[in-house]
Amino acid sequence: MVMEKFLIFPLPVVTGVASAPTALSDGTASGTATGFLVDTTATFAADGVVAGDVVVNITSGGVTTVLTTPTVDGDNLAIASAVVDFFETGDAYRIMVAADANKLTDGTASFTSDVSPGDVVLNGNEQEATVVTVDSDTQLTLSAPIISTAPTVPDADSYYIYRDSNNDGDRLFNISGIATVAYAASTYCTVSYIDRNGDGDLNDLAIYHTADSSSLQFHNILNSAIVNAYERQWKDVSIPLVLPQGMRITAIV
Amino acid sequence: MEKYLSIPVTNAGNQLISCNGVISVTSLATGNVTLTYKSGTAIVLATTQVAYSLRSQIQNEISLALATGWTNVSRVVSVVNAVTNVTIS
Q: Which residues of A183-197 are buried (b: 16+ CB within 10 A; e: fewer)?
């Protein structure tokens, strides 16, 4: 008798690439000055930046607003935050129109049927926000400005939406007949099965996840979960994979 | 009843290697060790073994693992020769 066992993987209910909002301005801080964003190459005035626009420190995740409308390019941009070194040299930033900053727009989505307030949104830069309102089929309002089409690096237009309360994205992952589980990189592992597919090719699946916060973190979690599943009695067929806070599975390919 | 060897792999942590469905464990006196399964799938442990040392150890560990109770799913192996990489084909 083959004893089938499954892990339950919490996958996103919706994934996509946002088509908006677009940043007014973006770049990298070239210096530090408390109360200012320093970027000697920026063209804040020409970009149309005004007081009240939202300023996102992409590197740290910090959010503030523009304090004073710039009148000429080349000056430091006054920001509302008085935190010392809110921007450090090398921090990436983007500036958004306040009304757009917390939006997620995707012209190909069906948010009204697929998404609910409270769902968690992850961007490609591994920052999270929650869905506050579903505005339409193609637009969400989020709790934080994590989505933008620019800059393209780090990736803030790819998005993954999870339903933590009752995750409709839960997917059974068969762990019977696994030949090996290989660490591939800090963002994915590969599971290979003993049995081959109908074409005689190797059966394997890559599991993509947010980056390990410690060496081999997801690989070790998965190995332990597989072993623990088989240490349980035969009636425990499907066992949820428990991930540490902040870790998400983004895809199984 | 699933059984695995947990084998340390250089810079890749401990990797689970299935003990189920193995039809052979082969190698030359020096060089890599290959586990071949009934399906034709093969796992190659890259190593620099001496005189069949790792092959013998893997064979013994598979036998020991399969002889344990069902709740002993994974058997950690302290390999006699470092395994530097694992490939499957």
A: beebebbbbbbbeee
Q: How many angstroms separate the first and last alpha carbons of chain B?
A: 23
Of A183, A195, A230, the CB nearest to B2: A230
With vertex at residue B7, the alpha carbon angle to CA B5 and CA B11, rounded to the nearest 5 degrees, is 155
Closest residue on chain A to B12 (Cα): A183
Q: In CATH terms, are A14-20+101-162 and A23-96 the same topology?
A: yes
Tokens of B2: 């699933």
Q: Which of A5, A183, A230 sits opposite B13 (nearest CB)?
A: A183
Domain A14-20+101-162 has CATH 2.40.30: yes
- B18 to A194: CB separation less than 8 angstroms, yes or no: yes
- Nearest CB among B9, B14, B73 relative to A230 is that of B73
Give the residue from chain B lying closest to A201, CA to CA.
Answer: B89
pTM above 0.90, yes or no: no
Contact B6 A223 (CB under 8 A): yes
Contact A97, A150 (CB under 8 A): no
Instruction: Confirm or reject contact between B30 and chain A (CB < 8 A).
Output: no
Write down the domain spans for chain A: 6-11+169-252, 14-20+101-162, 23-96
Q: Which fold has domain A23-96?
A: Elongation Factor Tu (Ef-tu); domain 3 (2.40.30)
CB contact (8 A) between residue A180 and residue B73: no
Per-residue model confidence as pLDDT tens digits over A144-198: 999 999 998 889 999 999 998 777 889 999 999 999 999 999 999 999 999 998 8
Q: What burial class does residue A171 get, using C-beta atoms within 10 Å of its C-beta: 0-12 exposed, 13-18 middle, 19+ buried?
A: middle
Whole-number Å distance between alpha carbons of A11 and A146? 20
